[in-house]
From TrEMBL:
This is Calcineurin-like phosphoesterase domain-containing protein. Gene3D superfamilies: 3.60.21.10. It comes from Candidatus Magnetoglobus multicellularis str. Araruama. Residues 1-71 form the Calcineurin-like phosphoesterase domain. GO terms for molecular function: hydrolase activity.
Length: 81
């Protein structure tokens, strides 16, 4: 098992989300990924990003960053509620 570490994915930027989707589905199957925070600040996008990573790596360890601590739902949905 190899161990990889990454941080500051900021997948709320289109090019970063595209990069994430392009990660190999086979190369990292037996590996662990440490995600050092700042994935994004939108809850649904955050969950999508972690789901993608989980489908690529055997195990994910996540440590929240300052952007992740303030994750919020889509504001359009909140304003209706």
């Amino acid at each position: 098992m190899r161990i990889f570490a990454i941080s500051d994915l900021h997948i709320d930027f289109k090019e970063n989300l595209t990069w994430l989707h392009q990660l190999s589905r086979d190369c990292y199957r037996g590996d662990l990924l440490l995600v050092g925070g700042d994935v994004c600040d939108d809850l649904s996008l955050f969950m999508e990003g972690l789901k993608i990573l989980k489908s690529r790596f055997r195990e994910i360890i996540f440590v929240p960053g300052n952007h992740d601590l303030w994750v919020h739902r889509n504001q359009a949905k909140d304003s209706i509620q």
